[in-house]
């Protein structure tokens, strides 16, 4: 049972408890230092989130990914939101797996299945594609030019 300290008393830690705390602090410090030097987003919380740690060149391009879908009744491609309410994943989860999706386009089929479970009253998606969009900048101002590159496509039944 713990007793209440008087105002003029100081709580002293034993050498073992002090060493344990110094060890934990040292270990966490090393993890944060290593994460800052060589870590990537998947080292979180010890590594920096690159989206917040870097910036785009004033004249260059800003890259974002988009998911587009088609349905049986509408063969045109339409953008859909990259959100948990639409596909069950956040934008970062899709963008972070773009390399895997490019290597295995069937992964896009899981987005269609997830959407069907989340929104059973919506028309099912017959095709899903992942695009890479580059918005071109000149002196930090969008020029109006947007370059799209198709990364992967999934078709129902394929």
What does this structure look like?
This protein is of the alpha+beta class and 158 residues long. It folds into 2 domains: 15-51; 61-155, no CATH class. The chain is built from 6 helices and 4 strands, in the order ααββααααββ. It has helices spanning 15-38, 50-53, 84-87, 91-95, 98-103, 107-118; strands spanning 61-71, 78-80, 125-138, 141-155. It has a 4-stranded antiparallel beta sheet with strand order 2-1-3-4. β1 and β2 (78-80) form a beta hairpin. The longest helix has 24 residues, at 15-38. The radius of gyration is 25 Å and the shape is elongated. The N and C termini lie far apart (67 Å). The relative contact order is 0.14.
Question: Any descriptors?
Answer:
alpha+beta, 2 domains, 6 helices, 4 strands
Largest sheet: 4 strands, antiparallel
Number of domains in the coordinates?
2
What is the oligomer described by this structure? single chain
State the strand order across the main sheet: 2-1-3-4
Percent of residues in helices: 25-40%
- Category from helices, strands and their pairing: alpha+beta
Helix and strand topology:
Blueprint lengths: L14 H24 L11 H4 L7 E11 L6 E3 L3 H4 L3 H5 L2 H6 L3 H12 L6 E14 L2 E15 L3
Question: How do you describe this structure in short?
Answer:
The protein is an alpha+beta fold. The protein folds into 2 domains: 15-51; 61-155, no CATH class.
